[in-house]
Amino acid sequence: MKLLTGNDLPTGDVLWWTGSSWSRHVEDAADVGDQGESIARAEEGARRVNGAYVIDATATPEGPRPAHIKDRVRALGPTVRPDLTLKPADPAAGSWVI
Amino acid sequence: MDKAQTVAPAQAGAAPLDTPQHPQADPGLRRGDAISDEPAVTLDAFLDSQTNATAVRLEAGDDARALLPYLDRIALVEVSFPSFRDGRGYSAARVLREAGYTGELRAQGDVLVDQMPLMKRCGFDSFAPQAEIDPATLEAALTRYENVYQKAADGRVPVWALRHG
Amino acid sequence: MYKYDQYDQQIVDARVEEFRDQVRRRLAGQITEDQFKPLRLMNGLYLQLHAYMLRVAIPYGTLDSRQMRMLATIARKYDRGYGHFTTRQNIQYNWIKLSDAPDILADLATVEMHAIQTSGNCIRNISSDQYAGAAADEVADPRIWAELLRQWSTFHPEFSYLPRKFKIAVIGAEEDRAAMRLHDIGIQLLERDGVLGGRIYVGGGMGRTPMIAPEIKDFVTADDLLSYVEACLRVYNRYGRRDNIYKARIKILIHELGADEYRRQVEEEFAHVKSLGLDPPKAEFDRITAFFAPPAFSTDAPETIDRRDPDFAVWVDQNTAAHKQPGYAIVTISLKPTGGIPGDATAEQIDLMADLAERYSFDELRVTHAQNIVLPHVRKADLYAIWQALDGAGLAPANLDLISDIIACPGLDYCSLANARSIPVAQKIATRFADQNRQRDLGELKLKISGCINACGHHHAGHIGILGVDKKGTENYQLLLGGSGAEDTSLAKITGPGFDEDGIVDAVETVTNVYLAKRAEGERFLDTYRRVGMEPFKEALYG
User: For residue B3, which of B35, B42, B34, B33 has the smallest C-alpha distance?
Assistant: First the structure.
């Protein structure tokens, strides 16, 4: 599947396109098919996202899993500071990234 | 590319830097001179001994020093900024001013408000940006720094000279 | 240390307002990200994996307690309670909002700090020797020249859009504690016939194509320095490559022209530039020099140190260095606890270090390019109290220059440029070698880890270097041996095929075992490698 991701312009938070809006949680990310580029352009023009780009991901029971480790790090947070990630209380979160 | 004619587009901020009321107006700045409307020829064409052109255009990679023997018969040098990230034009401008060039020195192309103060410090006194410049933003940018650390081509007194008189 | 006058302060204050306006215009859509990016980079603001990252400048690594406390305040107020000290003597905050950045810069400006030119294709923070003003081997304090260069390079109108970044280092001794030869311009101060001058090296750098800077000028005096450097930069700005980001550093230009031709062009330009009167008068040099006068040392400070506490004694032996003033010592505070994140410090730790500096070190600290903190002027009599305070805060690992004193970039845990994570590798290696006696037996062993080819972890200059790469979507680590950022500058060589994360830790252990088996009396790891060559290490690694 293809996901569209970027950053929030004022805060820098990692964002995922849900199909209709932007979420900070990769679980909410939708398959954009081949529409990613055009959605990105529209959303960047409206400043609802900054630096959006399309990535590959696989659908899993826990939600979409980005294909590249870099985007999994973006989805969760630094593997070396679990307390600063989006899932500080989840001991399995780190292994999802790696 | 349409840059053979160098009349600056009729856009806000594209006129020569005419700032008679400017609080930092420095004595070396041209005021109110008409923009040269003679077409600027390429460097190669200018160096051709047959030409009597008085306006020449430098591409980003051209060597400004090639013009040094002819400065007193040049009324306009237009320096291209193909991308605002390409900083070669700043050196071209200073080289010309340091050699005593007193004609119009124009920055053309991807010329944006945030770089124009630096361009002015390097000796540019007119601008032909491709995109519109907001005059209020430009004015704020030009007046923001009361002090500069270095001597450059604009005649502004560097801080070290203010410190030691 | 240098203190701002009204002019310095006005310039920094104006910069805050300029950036505030640029951010406003970006958020309002008046400028695009493409137009804004170089502007925010020139204010040290990156967009990284999780948030914006702000790199605050610490000029030549020197700061006082008031500034250090502000760094702690920034961490608490705008970030997540910690900062990361970098290999260019700066500090980075990883969780910054663009919308807060102008206020952060305003807060920094109240203590004479900023984030000017800590990124971008411009002249970056001038770095220097962390022992400047304290070490006995110094010819002159290099920070005086660094401050001259700092002012000259700040908002330099001709050199703000260079082909690529530009890094300058200044040292004041034969011993190179700042990796000077691996900078775009490196300057070594020396005396010739009683006159102080600088030897100028141009064209060093790490990254994709590491190079050691050749000497371009054997002697420049302070009153010619800025004209000479102006000439060096002008040749680069005009002729440096702009077609390929990996070929855009000045080292490539010098490599392609040859050092002799580059020197010729610089000399020609210098002859012209010198006539322009760009150099400040001697009075300005003297004015700056006065800020770096030695502090009011006691002339009768006791030499004896009570070594009865064995842990304290180990720390004294490893983490203190000789000071030029009798009865004093130079302290290195290690930010490399076993299993910790190299170079990170909490706001509380930063505050503690500020307090210690104010109380015990004439209110001065240094950041080292190895991501540690130095208290430059400490009475030997005060060492025990300092150590106790540090030990209570996890700041007393006695590992300066030992294998666990690892330089590591933030890597793929933080950085959008990275190919692999570097911090977990550093943690695993430090844990493997945690035993203090084992570390001391291995001796001086500079291990440096980069998460990508940009080499912010200085892996080319590691006795042992590790480079993280992307091997078909998985993290892989190359091992390099024999680099040095000291005056015996050398570039590390790759051993062979890379390893996975566990494999690289084993590989590091393997090569240390080769060293132990082969070393001669008094040899460091680096010396043994230089004597026996790569073969025995390759053999042990790959069979």
Answer: B42
Residue ranges of domains in chain C, CATH in brackets: 6-109 (3.90.480.20), 134-289 (3.30.413.10), 310-392 (3.30.70.3340), 407-542 (3.30.413.10)
**Which ipTM value was assigned to this complex?**
0.97
Domain ranges in chain A?
2-71
In a domain, B3, yes or no: no
Query: For residue B117, which residues of chain C lie inside 8 Å, CB to CB?
Result: 157
Domain count of the fold of chain B:
1
Both tokens of C105, joined, read 């810069």
Establish if C404 touches chain B: CB-CB under 8 angstroms: no
Residue of C nearest to A70 (CA): C412
The string of pLDDT tens digits covering residues C468-494 is 999 998 999 999 999 999 999 999 999
**Residues facing residue C464 across a β-bridge:** C447, C481
Q: Residue C11 is nearest to which of B147, B152, B163, comparing CB atoms?
A: B147
DSSP track, C284-317: HHHHHHHHTPPP---TT--------SHHHHHHHH
Query: Which residues numbered 26-65 in B keep a CB inside 8 Å of some CB on C?
Result: 63
Statement: residue C89 has pLDDT above 60: yes
The answer to whether B78 touches B56, Cβ cutoff 8 Å, is: yes
Render pLDDT for B47-88 as a digit per residue (tens, 0 to 9).
987 788 999 999 999 999 999 999 999 999 999 999 999 999
- CA torsion C137-C140-C141-C143 (nearest 10°) is -130
- Residues C206 and C460 sit within 8 Å (Cβ to Cβ): yes
CA distance C67 to chain B (A): 23
Which positions in chain C touch A97 (Cβ < 8 Å)? Answer: none
